[in-house]
Every structure is written in structure tokens, then in C-alpha cells.
């Protein structure tokens, strides 16, 4: 379970790092706490793990991840402290230290080691010190006008340009959204311009404020321990000790995302694989449109049927493979495992292409099905919330008495979400013993999720202990799979 360790902001007279933030609250205490929407299941990660652990599940959660949500001023202070450390150690200006930090992703230990080993090489690699300099001239290298020496400006590379050309160069690039990365105007010279060189050249406070915002964005995005919250207009910065592909949630806008890639959380699939999968799904969306209708023919009477709940257990058959549900005991994993054709490499290109499409559609259908189930189970969650409210109003127990139904719905969504992301993982996985183990654990999780889904949708027919026991089993299967295959 992700752990949100919100730090408390405090007023400070420290140096401003560059962005005007008068409109931003320093701490979350001034924000109004919104009541949880009774029909919202997006918070299914919160509190569910501890509830299951009380029922005896394995206490180790492979998704546990410590992170801190920083306000703008708090993240400023983090950056300023590191800038001052490097500037003092390397005996360079803070603006130059920032460029060096960006170049090496703010890994201070690595910077100091490289500086001790070869200081000149470090500075030239970071593009803050030229490998060679040119002869100074009284002629601007851009407009070719001969001007007074005090009207020429140059970086350490000694490429001289008039102030007007420098101003135009910086103005255009900042308007294009550039922060760090503005370099010398000379051809074949990539020496970086520190912010204390650029700022005096920008006309007007509005453009200077834009530049400061772009700098802050670039500093955070280049920092190996920081990520900007991807929520719309959200200023929160997430800080971690060890950057990993783990679930984090913003304390301000509640956005949930993967820390490493800032995309939707996708365990057990790694960041590179989920990017490939989503790109492929987008490219092949028309090919897969025929399964988007979410309808199938009943295997007994051939009438067109549509699933109206998250559970894949129909009355007598399995929604996914249309097979008899009674056979979905210990052999349930056969339904979720793609059977490779071992002789396909010896067949024609057309046959190989058909097999490739068949394989993709197999995994895509299951990916889409669990996504559809998640949406349908929101309706079940809403019905349970209404039922709990009705019972409480009729003095048939307190909210705490019926909390287990609420937790069962949220745990079902949590497990279903993980299961959905096992299919991109399996699609790109190479055949072998490891894939067989993964598919076996995937199938076990799927079987227990369907059992839990069946019982949640029919909660009145099951004793509390039976439902809580099924919650424990499903969560344990989920953790077992993540523990063995989650991206590290």
C-alpha cells in the first residue's frame, strides 16, 4: 500500500527559486476536506490492505512505497539545499551548479566523485565550461555589426554577440517553452546558458516568470527522486528515496500514477512494456473493434447476450471462453493462458501474421474484459453503499458493522485492476518456465477474483466470515504474483 507522508510547510525567507506562488497554500490544512463520494471506487487502495491483514493475510505488501507530497515552496527548499551543496563543493556559482545537477540528474554523490576524479571533464561534459575558446572580436557573430566592446556579451566560450541578438535569441526560445537547454548562438557550440545570464536579457516580468516556471519544471523533471504531479494545474511534487515503478497518489488532487513514468499505475507490467502495449492497442483499435460491443452468443441457445456485471461467472458457463463453469476448478488457468502454436515458425508469412493477430486479440479481449468489469463493478459498489446506508437508517447495525461489504467491493476493484495489467505483461513475455509460473499465478488470481466477484454481487447470500475469507485469499494471490513479477 502506498504511504503518503505529507510534510508540513512553514514560512521561510529563503531565496525564491523562481516562480511566483502567492496563490498557493503553503499547507494542506487550509484546503477544505471533501467528503468521499459514496459512488466512487477510485480510492480502493486506501485502508483495504490493513483490513485484509487483520484477517490473516501475508503482512508484506510488495506495493508498499514511501513517498512525500511536497508543496511548491517545500520542493524549492529541497532543490536550493542541493544546489548550495554542489556550488560550495565545486566552487562554482549556483546557476552553474544547477546546470551540472540537471546533467547528472541531481545525483550529488556521483557529481562529487567525478569532480574529484577530473573536474575539467565534468564541467565540459555538463556543457558549462568550453573545451576550447575562440578569439574575442568587436563584431557580433549574428548581425555582423561592429559594436563597442561593452555592448558585446559572451559565455566562457568567448563567442561574442551584441546584447540585442542575445535578447532576441533568449526571448524566442523562452516563448517556445524552453527553460534549461538554452545554449550559445554560435554554430557548433552547445555551451549552456546559466539562468543568471538569461534572466537580465528577457524583456518584462511576465516572460521572466515564464522562464522561472520552465526552469523549475526542468529541475524537477531531471531530478531522480522527484516527479511533478500530472494532475491538471497541480503544483505538488512527489519525493521518494528510491525511484521505482510504484503507485503514488497526490495529496492535493488525488491523482494516482506510476512514479517512474507518470502514467497510469500498471503493476506488474513495467513502464516500457505498458507504453508498447498502449501504443499497439491504439494502432490496432480498429482491428479489435468487433469485440468492443461486449456481446457474445450463448453456447447453449446461441442468443446474443451482454454481461451486465463484473463477474465472469455466468450461470452455467465462463464469459471468457464460453466453457462449462464446472470445469473451471483447478484447470481454470487454461482459460487465461494463450496456447502457442509450436510449428508456426515453419509456416507461411500469412499464417504467422494470422497467428500474431490471434495472439494479440486473445490478450486484448481479456485486457478489455477486466476493464469493462471494473466499470460494471462500480455499479455493484454503489448498490452496496446504498444498501449499507439503508440498513444504518433502519437501525439494522452501524456503518462499522457493514464496513466489510464496503471493503470487499474496494478489494475486488484493487485485485481486478492488478489482473487487468497482467495481460500486457503476459503478451510480451517470452515462452519458458518463468512464463508458465506467471500464467499459473495469474490464473489462480483470476479464479479467486471471480469467486470474490460472485460473492460480492450476492453478498446477502454469504456469511460475513465466508466473504472475508475470500477477500483474504484473493489479496494473498495478488501479493504473491506481484512479489514475484513486479517491476523493480
TrEMBL record:
Top-level class of the enzyme under EC nomenclature: transferase
Cross-referenced CDD domains: BRcat_RBR_TRIAD1, Rcat_RBR_TRIAD1, RING-HC_RBR_TRIAD1
Pfam family, one: IBR
SMART domains: IBR (SM00647)
Biased composition (Acidic residues): 12-39
Record keywords: Metal-binding, Nucleus, Repeat, Transferase, Ubl conjugation pathway, Zinc, Zinc-finger
Keyword set includes Manganese: no
Domain RING-type as annotated: residue spans: 136-339
Catalyzed reaction equations: [E2 ubiquitin-conjugating enzyme]-S-ubiquitinyl-L-cysteine + [acceptor protein]-L-lysine = [E2 ubiquitin-conjugating enzyme]-L-cysteine + [acceptor protein]-N(6)-ubiquitinyl-L-lysine
One GO term (biological process): protein ubiquitination
InterPro entries: Ariadne (IPR045840), BRcat_RBR_TRIAD1 (IPR047555), E3_UB_ligase_RBR (IPR031127), IBR_dom (IPR002867), Rcat_RBR_TRIAD1 (IPR047556), TRIAD_supradom (IPR044066), Znf_RING/FYVE/PHD (IPR013083)
Keyword set includes Repeat: yes
Principal subcellular localization: nucleus
Subcellular location: Nucleus
Enzyme Commission number: 2.3.2.31
Protein origin, superkingdom: Eukaryota
GO molecular function: ubiquitin protein ligase activity; zinc ion binding
Family affiliation: Belongs to the RBR family. Ariadne subfamily.
PANTHER family with a match to the protein in the record: RBR FAMILY RING FINGER AND IBR DOMAIN-CONTAINING
Protein name: RBR-type E3 ubiquitin transferase
Amino acid at each position: 500500500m502506498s504511504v503518503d507522508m505529507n510534510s508540513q510547510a512553514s514560512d521561510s525567507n529563503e531565496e525564491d527559486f523562481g516562480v511566483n506562488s502567492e496563490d498557493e497554500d503553503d499547507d494542506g490544512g487550509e484546503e477544505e476536506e471533501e467528503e468521499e463520494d459514496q459512488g466512487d471506487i477510485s480510492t480502493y487502495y486506501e485502508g483495504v490492505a490493513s483490513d485484509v491483514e487483520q484477517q490473516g493475510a501475508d503482512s508484506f505488501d510488495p506495493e508498499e512505497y514511501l513517498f512525500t507530497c511536497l508543496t511548491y515552496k517545500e520542493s524549492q527548499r529541497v532543490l536550493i539545499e542541493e544546489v548550495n551543496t554542489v556550488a560550495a563543493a565545486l566552487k562554482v556559482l549556483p546557476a552553474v551548479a544547477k546546470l551540472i545537477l540537471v546533467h547528472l540528474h541531481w545525483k550529488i554523490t556521483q557529481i562529487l566523485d567525478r569532480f574529484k576524479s577530473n573536474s575539467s571533464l565534468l564541467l565540459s561534459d555538463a556543457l558549462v565550461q568550453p573545451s576550447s575558446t575562440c578569439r574575442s572580436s568587436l563584431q557580433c557573430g549574428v548581425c555582423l555589426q561592429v559594436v563597442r566592446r561593452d555592448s558585446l556579451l559572451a559565455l566562457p566560450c568567448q563567442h561574442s554577440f551584441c546584447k540585442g541578438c542575445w535578447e532576441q535569441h533568449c526571448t524566442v526560445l523562452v516563448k517556445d517553452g524552453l527553460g534549461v537547454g538554452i545554449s550559445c548562438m554560435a554554430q557548433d557550440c552547445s555551451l549552456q546558458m546559466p539562468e543568471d545570464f538569461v534572466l537580465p536579457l528577457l524583456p518584462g516580468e511576465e516572460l521572466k516568470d515564464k522562464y522561472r516556471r520552465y526552469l523549475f519544471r526542468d529541475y524537477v523533471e531531471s531530478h531522480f527522486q522527484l516527479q511533478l504531479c500530472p494532475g491538471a494545474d497541480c503544483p505538488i511534487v512527489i519525493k521518494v528515496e528510491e525511484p521505482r515503478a510504484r503507485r503514488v497518489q497526490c495529496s492535493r488532487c488525488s491523482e494516482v500514477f506510476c512514479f517512474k513514468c507518470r502514467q497510469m499505475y500498471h503493476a506488474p507490467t513495467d513502464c516500457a512494456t505498458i507504453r508498447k502495449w498502449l501504443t499497439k492497442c491504439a494502432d490496432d483499435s480498429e482491428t479489435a473493434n468487433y469485440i468492443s460491443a461486449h456481446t457474445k452468443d450463448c453456447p447453449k441457445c446461441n442468443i446474443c447476450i451482454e454481461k451486465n456485471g463484473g463477474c465472469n461467472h455466468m450461470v452455467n458457463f465462463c464469459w471468457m471462453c464460453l466453457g462449462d463453469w464446472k470445469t473451471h476448478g483447478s484447470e481454470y488457468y487454461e482459460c487465461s493462458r494463450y496456447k502457442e502454436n509450436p510449428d508456426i515458425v515453419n509456416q507461411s508469412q500469412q499464417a504467422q501474421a494470422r497467428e500474431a493477430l490471434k495472439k494479440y486479440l486473445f490478450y486484448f479481449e481479456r485486457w478489455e474484459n477486466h476493464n469493462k468489469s471494473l466499470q460494471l463493478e462500480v455499479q455493484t459498489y454503489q448498490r452496496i453503499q446504498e444498501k449499507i446506508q439503508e440498513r444504518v437508517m433502519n437501525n439494522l447495525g452501524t456503518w462499522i458493522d457493514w464496513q466489510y461489504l464496503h471493503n470487499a467491493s474496494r478489494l475486488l476493484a484493487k485485485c481486478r485492476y492488478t489482473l487487468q495489467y497482467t495481460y500486457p505483461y503476459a503478451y510480451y513475455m517470452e515462452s519458458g518456465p518463468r512464463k508458465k509460473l506467471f500464467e499459473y499465478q495469474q490464473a489462480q488470481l483470476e479464479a479467486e477474483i471471480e469467486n470474490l466477484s460472485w460473492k460480492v454481487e450476492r453478498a446477502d447470500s454469504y456469511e460475513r466470515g465466508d466473504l472475508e475469507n475470500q477477500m483474504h485469499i484473493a489479496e494473498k494471490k495478488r501479493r504473491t504474483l506481484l512479489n514475484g513479477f513486479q517491476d523493480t
